[in-house]
Amino acid sequence: MRKSARPPFTIKTTMNANIYLPDLMEVVQVRQQTADVKSVRIRFRDEERARAFSFRVGQFGIFSAFGAGESPFNLCSSSNWQDFIEFCFRRTGRVTEALWNIDEGDIVGFRGPYGNAYPMDKWRGKNLIFIGGGIAMPPIRCAIWYALENRDQYGQITIVYGSRKVGDLVFQNELDRWAEYDNVRVVTCVDPGGETPDWKGEIGFVPTVVQQADISAENAIALVIGPPIMIQFTLPVLSKIGLGDSDIYTSLENRMKCGVGKCGRCNCGPAYVCKEGPVFTLEQIKRLPKDF
Amino acid sequence: MSEILSSATLRRLVDQWITEGRHVAGPRLVNDRLLYGWLESAGQLTLDGETRPRNSIKDFLFPRHEKLYGYKLGRKRVELTEVAPLVDEQIVIAARPCDAALGPILDRVFNWDYSDATYNRRRELTTIVTLACQSFDAQCFCTSVGSGPDDPRGSDVMLHALDEGILEIRCLTEKGRRLFAGQTEPSALKAQVGAGPEIRFDLGKVGEFLEGGFEDAQWPEMARRCLGCGVCAYTCPTCHCFDIVDEGAGGQGVRARNWDACQFGMFTLHAAGHNPRSQQAQRQRQRIYHKFRIYPQKFGTLLCTGCGNCTRNCPVGLGVQPVLSAISRKMQSNDEL
Ligand code: SF4
Ligand code: FES
Predict the structure, then answer these.
(1) B278 and B270 Cβ atoms separated by less than 8 Å
(2) Which of A89, A114, A139 is the last residue of a domain?
(3) B85 contacts B124 by C-beta, under 8 angstroms
(4) Distance B290 CA to ligand 1 centre (A)
(5) Which of A261, A276, B183, B321, CA to CA, is 20 to 30 A from A22?
(6) Measured in angstroms, how far is the CA atom of residue B313 from the centroid of ligand 1?
């Protein structure tokens, strides 16, 4: 029997990059938004990676708190912003608990951008209706800033943002800044009982407020993101004012691990939310089986 | 003409490969149960007995636990370390055809759009030597899913047992040819391949049902006795769902991927509490749809090889075949009405 330390033949192998290996990002700013929500601004440690990086609003990333794990969050900054990206999270589990404790100068992991994006080009020339509930503002915020930074490309912008109580509204300081732009209307609301004595916004649930806001569907698209129940009751209102199913968009927030179509958990029927989503039109969603 | 080799030669080669430092896996008895596992010597290789091992060769291409990279935390510092790439060759010997077929099936998952380097490397370093089946049990249903006892998909070599310790050998790929170069002899003997297990359900009827059957009342009915244990998925050659977790302590550890299963309630639970599949019926339905509709629509083949392990290992006798047989029967009796 022939013995050799090395196999008598070699098999050709290819080594490509480890798709699960994140970039190391430095935390440059942490803002507490509500009692249990924080937004975080991070930048690439590696200059070259920073230069090479780009994304489109609506995409998401997988963020790491090393030692705790990974979680997917939308990239809630505008894609026009240089030097940093932002994400926002609610403290609910192991990873977000670890992220809650990070400070400026700390290191987090990021891989992405993943998924599809809002069709900002296709929306050019249209009136934009943004409707958000609770913690769902961050994935809308990126599109709002993007539209405002390209103000002449879009028509009337209507933003309806509601939460259970005043203290639950995220990016509150930006709501007023958005309202200062030409042709932008911002309607805020809180659930009955959630108001404070000095609350100036509406009181009521998002679907009702949308109904009463006298929004025109003409030449408009709507982006609606929020808790399933809010979406469920807002969609009929939008249909009623005349928006077609292909003009209503949402972003699905399924549980994800890999973000790259492998781990098998994010699918809604045939659609892998991490790859074919997270952005879908109502028309597409109606064609999907009830698996969300 | 065919090529043959004796099982004595095969065993000698297995020992030689092991001595040369290659990792060789194959069916072996562990506590009287046939399981695929790493072989320490050819003596452990079990070529008879139970129809097929209770696990699959998935472990050797997509291990149940795999380190993706290491991390080390310091003050305002994180260091990531790449895991040393696999360099040793792997040979799987006497895989069943329903196991070998997992290669081309998983290749698509791990390479659509994003290429998974760890998986690809393992796959490239692995040679699969398949033993065509001659016996079947009540759970085998390869013939019902368009496969059969000598399906060559994913095999580098196909062996057929002939009489008296002689094997006909067909090298199907370059890898396979290199492995057995100079070790076989020409012969006039030729293996007869049996028909395989009887066809147990009508795949066409199943397809028809799935097209509109997502909300059929049958799902809760069928899933009622499921325990949600995940054994079906773990012992399946093609189930590939995984979790990504950090495992470590004291500021260092590894980020790893571990097998997961769509049968667990936590699998799809959102951070905000909503769960798209909060009931076991929805999870059973997902498993069947993924295998017989979602994956086929994406990649053109079934995500099932008909091995029957799901039912063989299920504590309550569920799994693909009983469910699809029931669906197929129901569709047929509807036709007759
Ligand atoms: S089908 Fe059987 S093996 Fe699969 S999860 Fe249910 S009880 Fe467990
Ligand atoms: S998140 Fe893993 S497949 Fe979509």
Answers:
(1) no
(2) A114
(3) no
(4) 16
(5) A276
(6) 8
Asked if the peptide bond before residue A113 counts as cis, ω within 30 degrees of 0, the response is yes
> Does residue A269 form part of some domain?
no
End-of-domain residue from the set A114, A137, A155: A114
Distance CA B163, CA B171 (A): 20
pLDDT digits (tens, 9 = 90+) for B134-150: 999 999 999 999 999 99
Query: In DSSP terms, which residues pair with B188 in a beta bridge?
Result: none
pLDDT in tens, A189-234: 999 999 999 999 999 999 999 999 999 999 999 999 998 889 999 9
**pLDDT tens track, chain B, 337 positions:** 899 999 999 999 999 999 999 999 999 999 999 999 999 999 999 998 889 999 999 999 999 999 999 999 988 899 999 988 888 999 999 999 999 999 999 999 999 989 999 999 999 999 999 999 999 999 999 999 999 999 999 999 999 999 889 999 999 999 999 999 999 999 999 998 889 999 999 999 999 999 999 999 999 998 999 999 999 999 999 999 999 999 999 899 999 999 999 999 889 988 878 899 999 999 999 999 999 999 999 999 999 999 999 999 999 999 999 999 999 999 988 877 6
Residues A95 and A135 in one domain: no
Residues 6 or more apart in contact with residue B163 via CB below 8 angstroms: none
Q: Does A254 touch chain B (CB under 8 A)?
A: yes
A131 and A108 housed in the same domain: no
Q: Flag whether A256 is in a domain.
A: no
Do B293 and A71 make contact, defined as CB atoms within 8 angstroms? no
- Tell me if residue A282 falls in helix, strand or coil: helix
Whether A268 has its CB under 8 Å from any CB of chain B: the answer is yes
Same-domain check for residues A103 and A132: no
Backbone Cα Rg of chain A: 21
Q: Are residues A144 and A104 in the same domain?
A: no
What is the nearest CA distance from B79 to chain A, expressed in angstroms? 9
Whichever domain contains A177, its CATH number is 3.40.50.80
Question: pLDDT of A140-185, one tens digit each?
Answer: 999 999 999 999 999 999 999 999 999 999 999 999 999 999 999 9
> What is the total count of domains within chain A?
2
Question: Does residue A245 sit within a domain?
Answer: yes
Of the candidates A11, A18, A24, the beta carbon closest to that of B68 is on: A18
In a shared domain, residues A98 and A191:
no
What stretches of chain B adopt beta strand conformation (E)?
Answer: 2-6, 23-30, 33-38, 65-74, 77-82, 90-95, 126-131, 157-161, 166-171, 185-187, 242-249, 252-259
Does residue A133 share a domain with residue A77? Answer: no
Do A40 and A92 fall into the same domain?
yes
Range of the domain at A151: 127-251
Residue A243 maps to a domain: yes
Contacts of A88 (CB under 8 A, 6+ apart): A33, A37, A38, A39, A40, A73, A74, A76, A135, A138, A170
Angle at B16 between CA B10 and CA B21, to 5 degrees: 130
Ligand 2 atom closest to A274 (CA)? 4
DSSP B230-297: -HHHHT-SS---EEEEEEEETTEEEEEEEE--TTSGGGG--TTS--TT-SHHHHHHHHHHIIIIIHHH
Q: What is the CATH number of the domain that holds A83?
A: 2.40.30.10
CA of B324 to the centre of ligand 1 (A): 15
